[in-house]
Amino acid sequence: MEYKIATLDDIEATLKLHAKYQIDSIAEVDKKDGFVTTAFTTEELTALITQEQGLFIAKEGDEVLAYVMAASWEFWSKWEMFRHMIADLPNLNYNGTQLSTENSYQYGHICIDKSLRGTEVLPNIFNFARKQMSQRYPILITFVNQINPRSYAAHTRKLGLDVIQEFGFNGNRYWELGCFTSITPTAS
To answer: Which residue among 15, 143, 162, 168 sits deepest, i.e. has the most Cβ atoms within 10 Å of its Cβ?
Structure first.
């Protein structure tokens, strides 16, 4: 398995994986095992790669089997959900550090092919992306929809992220999670 920062040549294979697990196109039987809620376009992934160097992938040959997205709040601000989170940052702190758009970034979405779930791919791709982003930001922030308990368990138990708060948005409930990028989180 090769872990790398994606290039423009990786977009098509990334979108193929994404479509398998996106809420609008996932097989009903697979929803219980986790899903991605946001649809992405070629143009959005192009911007993520060229502006942020924020698409991290796990590949075997030409096939992308996992990805992690990570970017500045400015990048994510075109989506209403992230504008809500940005507005709330001044009200939050993580382990005594006041959160801001300057000292934190949005980690996620993440997607792993179901054939590799429960393997070392999750911690490996997470830590690869975290180490890359630690050069720019000290704090990682993410969120998990409360209807996706598998993702919550993976992020808190397997990756050791801390719950910062619970919040509501657009009729849904979420956990907001975080960790310092310079320290490998300890899973419980």
So the answer is: 143
